[in-house]
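Milestone M4 deliverable, item 7.
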Amino acid sequence: MAIAKWATEERQSERRVSRWIMLIAVATLLVAAATGAFTWWQWSESQRPKLVTADARLYINHAGNPPPELVQLFWRNGERPAFRGAATVFTVSEDGNQHEKFGLSEITVDWQSTSTTLVPFGSGYAQIPVDMNKFLGLLLVCVKYYDEANHSYRQTFLFRRGAPLNDHILTRLDELPSKRDACKRASKAA
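Output delivered:
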């Protein structure tokens, strides 16, 4: 009887150990799968063009009649070329509930160029007329561009007025974190 009891306890102990081994194996597989998925995502992100704001300004020439008002945007490109970029500027309220479209512009290499091909580690430029009488507090810039395989990409940039740079003609625009769906909501509202 003591031997049978001992054998039963031993089997139960072996089952508990094998359950723990199974749980550890499954947890290890899940960690390996998550690591692989994250690595793949990082790799795929590096294989696409990506724009980063280099500078953003609001230009208001008060001497003009009416005063010309422009948003000037400068970007740096990542390690992949970007093609046929376009930027749409909206004004949005602080709470995000009001939107109004200001305008659309191609993204070119610089202010003198007509080329919309941004080379790797190159720069891009857009200039869009705005009406500051309709300004709601923030500027939302919705960008769309393509890669070599004609896949489209979208990026969202949000700006608020910063400090004047010189004689109140140029004002720096400070970039803020933006939500991915902000451009969809602004496009539907405008």
